[in-house]
User: What shape does this take?
Amino acid sequence: MSDHPRDEFRTQLLNHTMRFAAAYVPAYGEVAYRCLSDVHALAQLPSLPILKKSDILMRPEAFRHISMEPHLIQHTSGTSGQILHVHRSKEELAAIESFFSKSDEPTDKTTPVIISILGSTTDAIQTPAPAVGQVFRLNLRDPTWRSRIQDVVRAPWEYVEGTHHARPAVIVGLESDLRVLTALLRECSFDFSSASISSLITSGDVITRRLRRYYESTWRAPLFDQYGLSEIFGSCNQCGVCGHLHPDPHVIMEVVNPISSEPVSDGVGIAVFTTLAPFVQCQPFIRYWSGDLVEISEVSCPVDLLGFRLLGRLYKSVSLPGLTGSGIVLSAIEAYDALDDFSEIASSGMFKWLWEIKDHSQLGHLKFDLRMDSDRGSHTLVATIETRFTPHLYPEQSESLKFRIRDALCKRSGSLRESIQAGHMSLRINLKPPGSIDSFMPDMVE
Ligand SMILES: [Zn+2]
Assistant: This one.
C-alpha cells in the first residue's frame, strides 16, 4: 500500500499473522478464508470477508486458538448488545511486555507521571502493557482520594515511587471521569494554574468543540482524543502534528462503506480492524467491523498515512434511504457537537453518588433523540429535544431556539444541508418540557 514506516511494520507482521490464524484458529481455516495464507500486502486485505461481532458470538470457540490457554479474559462493555469475551494468552501478554519494554528508559526527572483516573461504572479489564511513564491510579470512587485531588494534581510525582522531583504529568482516562475530576476541583474553587498537568488524554466519549474549549481553558493544557475497541489490542490516538486520529502501529485499520463494505479511501465509512501477531494470538480479529463511523481524508502526516475523525456509532447515526455514498446525513457526533452549544437543552443527571457535586446535570449528557420518519417516499428527520424550560410557556423563545438548532445542525453536516436543500428530506424539531426524555445514554463509541 505504501512505504510508510508504520505500514512497513504492519506488512512485516501481516503474512505471519494470516498463516498463524489459518493454521490454529478453526474459523480462519474455512472456505471463506481460503486465500488467507496468500495475503502478504495491506492492499490484499479487502479480498477477505468482514467479520462482525455476531459472527463470533454464534460460535466463539471457532474464533479462538485450538490449544492456547486463556490467561486473561476481557469483555466488551455490552452497551451495543451481547457481551463478547476476549481471551488473551500468556504468550501474547509476554510478547506485549517484551516489545513495549524495549523503549523503557530508567526513571528520572523527565519520565512523566501518568495520572490514570478511575470513577465511572464500567470496569474494563485492560491488557497489561508497559506504560511510557510511572502510573498513579486515582480512584474517584474513594472519598479519601476525592478529598486529596487538589494535592494530587498539584504534585503528582509525590504519589509514585522513586525520586520526588517535579516532572511532566499527564491525565489519562475516560472523558466521563475527567468530567468528574474537573467538576470536583471546580466545586472547591481550585486554582487550576497551580496544577502540574501538561496534557489530557481521554477516551470513551464524545469530545465536542465546547467540551474541548472547556477542558483546555480550565486545565490550561491541550486535550488529545483516544479511540479504541475493548476487543482490539491497540488504539487510535489524536496526532499532535495533524490533529487526526491515527491507529497504533501494531494494528491495521481500514475504512469500508457501511452498506456495501467496499473500501473507502476518502469520506465516511466504518472502521474495520485487523490485529497482528505476536501481539494477539489467542483470538485474532481479521477485518473486524467496529460499528463506528469515521471520516477519513488524505493526510500527508509523517506519523501515519491513515488519518481520520470519529463520527460515532453507526446505529446512532441518521441515514437517508437512497442517498449515495455512506447514506448518512447526520452522524451521532455531528448531532451531539451541534447541540452541545445550546445551554437551553437539558442534560441528564449523572454520578449522583458524588455528594460533593451540587448540580449533577453538569456531569450528564444532552437529552435528545433523532429518528428518520419515512412515509411513501417522503423522509423527515425528527429531532426530539428536551429543554430546561417548558416550551409552550415561552413560544417566542421556543421558535427562536428551533431556528438556531436547525441552523446549527445544517452547518455541522453538509450532507444534511444538501439533502434538505435538494428537497430529498425535511427536518422537524420538537421541543419537549423538562422530564420528557428519561434515562438517556449517549453510547457514542465502544
Ligand atoms: Zn498526524
User: Anything to note?
Assistant: The pocket of zinc ion is lined by residues 239, 241-242, 244, 246, 301, 303, 307 (CB under 6 Å). The first strand starts at residue 70 and ends at 75.
